[in-house]
Amino acid sequence: MARDMSDIDILKMELQQLQKEVKNEREPVSKTAKELVEWVEANSAEDILLKGVPEDKNPFKEKGGCIIT
């Protein structure tokens, strides 16, 4: 797409993007990282990736084995 556009068109697009980004509210990483850690710790009890899937609710658990008599 950029190959079909002139340099002026590309610069206009970049300027529009920068004008959008300058309106974003910014916060220091030290504050947001602390909030993120607190949120993860508060919600870790419900996180399936951390606690695992209960055996009775695991859809991929083998229901029964093969028995050869």
UniProtKB/TrEMBL annotation:
<dbReference type="InterPro" id="IPR001770">
    <property type="entry name" value="G-protein_gamma"/>
</dbReference>
<dbReference type="GO" id="GO:0007186">
    <property type="term" value="P:G protein-coupled receptor signaling pathway"/>
</dbReference>
<feature type="coiled-coil region">
    <location>
        <begin position="1"/>
        <end position="28"/>
    </location>
</feature>
<dbReference type="GO" id="GO:0031681">
    <property type="term" value="F:G-protein beta-subunit binding"/>
</dbReference>
<dbReference type="InterPro" id="IPR015898">
    <property type="entry name" value="G-protein_gamma-like_dom"/>
</dbReference>
<comment type="subunit">
    <text>G proteins are composed of 3 units; alpha, beta and gamma.</text>
</comment>
<keyword id="KW-0175">Coiled coil</keyword>
<keyword id="KW-0488">Methylation</keyword>
<comment type="function">
    <text>Guanine nucleotide-binding proteins (G proteins) are involved as a modulator or transducer in various transmembrane signaling systems. The beta and gamma chains are required for the GTPase activity, for replacement of GDP by GTP, and for G protein-effector interaction.</text>
</comment>
<keyword id="KW-0472">Membrane</keyword>
<dbReference type="Pfam" id="PF00631">
    <property type="entry name" value="G-gamma"/>
</dbReference>
<feature type="domain" description="G protein gamma">
    <location>
        <begin position="4"/>
        <end position="69"/>
    </location>
</feature>
<dbReference type="InterPro" id="IPR036284">
    <property type="entry name" value="GGL_sf"/>
</dbReference>
<keyword id="KW-0449">Lipoprotein</keyword>
<comment type="similarity">
    <text>Belongs to the G protein gamma family.</text>
</comment>
<keyword id="KW-1003">Cell membrane</keyword>
<keyword id="KW-0636">Prenylation</keyword>
<keyword id="KW-0807">Transducer</keyword>
<protein>
    <recommendedName>
        <fullName>Guanine nucleotide-binding protein subunit gamma</fullName>
    </recommendedName>
</protein>
<dbReference type="GO" id="GO:0005834">
    <property type="term" value="C:heterotrimeric G-protein complex"/>
</dbReference>
